[in-house]
Amino acid sequence: MSQAMNSSSTSPASQTAAVTSEDLAYLGLDEEGHLLDHTQWTPQIAQQLADTLSVKLTEQHYQILQQVRDFHTQFNHPPTTRPLIKYLMKTLPEHNISNQLLQQLFNTGLVARHVNRIAGLPKPPNCL
């Protein structure tokens, strides 16, 4: 697998190193495609996970994903949709975050589940 991105040198959206399915298999995914160990997450892994949803990650996506990971660190659990939106509205006010925007950006109606998955976090407990 390619080296982890050095965040001080380039933005995650500009990274071109591909992550193969063998890389993901080595890291380990649960039966729903969430990383078993969230500390293994990299922006390249995020793009590989996003590819399964036909999402090309941009700088805006990466800013949101970093805030999702920060939420998890701060509260010790993956965010569900409403707390996620409230948290993002506070931490990224310039993006005018809404459920609709997240659905559009991440190409899904299952915002919390898929955003957490791409962010390398477990599925929120209230997701079926």
UniProtKB/TrEMBL annotation:
Gene3D superfamilies named in the record: 3.30.1420.10, DsrC-like protein, C-terminal domain (1.10.10.370)
Compartments where found: Cytoplasm
Keywords carried by this UniProt record: Cytoplasm
A Pfam family of this chain: DsrC
Primary site of residence: cytoplasm
One GO MF term attached to the UniProt entry: sulfur carrier activity
Keyword Cytoplasm included in the entry's annotation: yes
Signal sequence segment: none
Gene Ontology biological-process entries: tRNA wobble position uridine thiolation
Keyword Repeat part of the UniProt annotation: no
CC per GO annotation: cytoplasm
Coiled coil: none
Homology family: Belongs to the DsrC/TusE family.
Protein name: TusE/DsrC/DsvC family sulfur relay protein
UniProt gene name: tusE
